[in-house]
Specification:
Blueprint (H helix, E strand, L loop, with lengths): L1 H29 L10 E6 L6 E5 L2 H11 L5 E2 L8 E10 L15 E10 L4 E6 L2 E6 L2 H10 L5
Antiparallel strand pairs: 1-2, 1-4, 3-7, 4-5, 5-6, 6-7
Length: about 160
């Protein structure tokens, strides 16, 4: 009888553990946004002319549309093809955070670059650089096409 109780308790414990892990994984998948939803401005430049801004996205509604069209939850880590040629660079900016002891400058909104997305010509791959983390990712074809179209729109 003692063995039955131990078996039931072990099975219950494993079930709870597995259920907890699967729900946490689901929550993580839904919350994958790399902090992009905090962006206040996105600048698009060509790799060939990084100093020339081709497009600036700075209206909150346009930024939200941009982030939703990225479909971050569909990105997958992948190796780049050997013949990949860089095309555009997207620099994402956020408002700087007030540090402990600093006064809040509500009137002064200083933006800091927090992420860079680099696209590749004709292939659905991107580089994402956040702080010291650099990821090579495969994105859906429609995301790649959308990103390419953003370099041709001038706001």
């Amino acid at each position: 009888m003692k063995k039955v109780y131990i078996g039931v308790i072990a099975a219950l414990s494993i079930s709870i553990l597995l259920f907890g892990c699967s729900s946490k994984e689901k929550d993580m998948k839904e919350d994958v946004n790399l902090g992009f939803d905090q962006a206040k401005k996105v600048e698009v430049s060509s790799v060939n002319h990084p100093d020339v801004v081709l497009n600036t996205i700075d209206k909150q509604q346009d930024i939200n549309t941009f982030i939703n069209k990225l479909k971050v939850d569909k990105w997958n880590v992948a190796d780049l093809p050997a013949d990949a040629k860089k095309e555009n660079v997207y620099k994402m900016y956020q408002e700087g955070t007030a540090k402990l002891g600093e006064t809040s400058n509500k009137g002064k909104k200083e933006l800091k670059q927090v992420a860079t997305i680099t696209t590749y010509k004709g292939i659905p791959y991107i580089d994402v650089e956040i702080k010291n983390l650099n990821l090579k990712l495969r994105v859906p074809n429609d995301v790649s096409e959308y990103l390419s179209s953003q370099s041709q729109q001038k706001h």
